[in-house]
Amino acid sequence: MQENIRNFCIIAHIDHGKSTLADRLLQVTGTVTDREFHDLMLDTMDIERERGITIKSTAVSMRYPAGNGRVYELNLIDTPGHVDFSYEVSRALASCEGALLVIDAAQGVEAQTVANLYKAMEQNLVVIPVINKIDLPSANILEVMGEIEGELGLDVDDTVCISAKTGEGIPDLLEAIVEKIPPPPGDAHLPLRARVFDSMYDPYRGVVVYVRVVEGSVSRGDDIMLMASGSRYSIEEVGRFGLKREPCRSLAAGQVGYLVAGIKTVADVRSGDTVTMADEPAGEPLEGYEEVKPVVFSSIYPVSSEDYEDLSAALEKLRLNDASLVFEKVSSPGIGFGFRCGFLGLLHLEVVQERLEREFDLSLVLTAPTVRYRITLTDGTVLMVDNPVDYPDPSTISLTEEPYIKASIIMPDRYIGQVAKLILDRRGENYKSMYVGRKRVEVTADMPLSEVVYDFYDKLKSVTQGYGSFDYEMVGYRSSDLVKVDILVNHEKVEALSMLVHRDRARQWALNACKNLKAEIPRQQFKIPIQGAIGGQVISRETITALRKDVTAKCYGGDITRKRKLLEKQKAGKKRMKMVGSVAIPQKAFLAVLKRDD
């Protein structure tokens, strides 16, 4: 029955206990037995377990017999906390009527807590504040309640205090979910409209489509149509999400589940698309998701050109599971054919690279990540450039602009000096600070995105000893003095290592790149100069010394002229080798250029 369904998600800052709370809910509702249970039940990818973070939103259905005698179907979506995966959070919120906003009893309200609350409010969701980790010795429940009321503007009386680790307060939370979150709207008798919120590729069944049924119902054997592409399919299986996929007879309005319809073409399915009946289609599709806007760009090439088709197929399958990934075909004279990809941040880039290498067994080369610059030419043409290869001749440019963000950092006040220095080092502007608690400060500043995407978050965690939290939003483009820095290895330009940087940072970046390359490129039998240059002007240089074979080892005494003759012969050979020798740059050298040495 529709009034017995509750759709909700768990949102929070990183490490505030979302996945642990999901584990406890699964145990308390009896969805998983003690014998089957293991930690982080919903983090199914190896990379999620190794890094200890949630990357993919995961849906699961639970049966809960409430105190009023009714049995409720609770559809839970566990979401990521890292700012790079905020697109996953926005898609999860669009499939729910309520959200549990989890706050750490020791850390209090953090930057992503505020950002996620605003996203939930935009979707008009019922928000239940949940104070987690009340079993910690450092827990300060009264202070956190003050922050919930003062900073977030939520009613403290609705707050539920729990310990996801020990299970304390979980029954009260389940009752709050049933009482406060409304049942899903929608009429089961109207024509079918179901929103695609995610999908995955099964090598045996084709594309498995994850849907939230908004109106109507869908059963096995029905003929459906995807409204964006107009493609038609016959349903082989419908089901709900338990810990594994559980087939059922039908899905009705308000339910969350999956469809298997023998969809072979990955490109036909898009997140946000509407599924309807082929014979009785709905009048208009559901409102889709906002378009994803990538902020970091990098080119991905296969190490072996024979793997190009495999890489193309792998990216298509990955995009099915990760809707925030965008890519297009490119070619480089030095590396061959590949793809220019857009990401939501550097962690997103790392995760995509690791998934391609693990899940699809590919060896890859990645170029240095860049942001998208706006360049106005003297003839009035406006170009959007995210690849240094496309940077026009400097004499034709009248204005260059780079993207700026508004950064929000919440931390204990004792770190304000180090954080202010870090922001100024990264060309921050409009610095402001205000107290948001007794000893907690929120700092806001406008910063160039290019200064943030590399390692700003790591540096922030370092200077605040892990207590600083960071969130940002795009604020548009501002004028900037950009230059293109080229890297030359043995006097040959390596396009894949070129970089667009601010003029004040150019020499520092070039010195750093040359130093890192020197450490990674293996020595040859001739000297290898590594240079950083702006146009024709060299601004940095490192030299890899030659390997020297001891050609006189076989001489045991005798006339010195024999040794000299051997050394002269070696010298001539090295000179000839330097003229014709080419330097193979290993993949780790490309990655070494990204390391920032402040």
What does this 3D model show about the protein?
By secondary structure, the chain is α+β, with helices and mostly antiparallel strands. It folds into 5 domains: 2-180, 3-Layer(aba) Sandwich (Rossmann fold); 193-277, Beta Barrel (Elongation Factor Tu (Ef-tu), domain 3); 296-366, Alpha-Beta Plaits (2-Layer Sandwich), CATH 3.30.70.870; 373-479, Alpha-Beta Plaits; 483-592, Alpha-Beta Plaits. Helices cover 26% and strands 33% of the residues. The chain has an 8-stranded antiparallel beta sheet with strand order 11-10-16-7-8-15-12-13, with helices on one face. Strands 2-3-1-4-5-6 form a 6-stranded mixed beta sheet, sandwiched between helices. The mean pLDDT is 82.
Low-confidence stretches: none
The CATH superfamily of the largest domain bears the name: P-loop containing nucleotide triphosphate hydrolases
Output the CATH topology of the largest domain: Rossmann fold
CATH class of the largest domain: Alpha Beta
Query: Which oligomeric form is depicted?
Result: single chain
Indicate the proportion of strand residues.
25-35%
The CATH level-2 architecture of the largest domain is identified as 3-Layer(aba) Sandwich
Number of domains: 5
Main structural class? alpha+beta
Number of strands: 31
Mean pLDDT across all residues, rounded? 82
Please report the number of helical segments.
14
How does the overall form come out from the CA principal axes? globular
Largest sheet: 8 strands, antiparallel
Distance between the termini: 60 Å
Q: Going across the biggest sheet, name each strand in turn.
A: 11-10-16-7-8-15-12-13
Percentage of residues assigned to helices: 25-40%
What gyration radius follows from the Cα positions, in whole Å? 28 Å
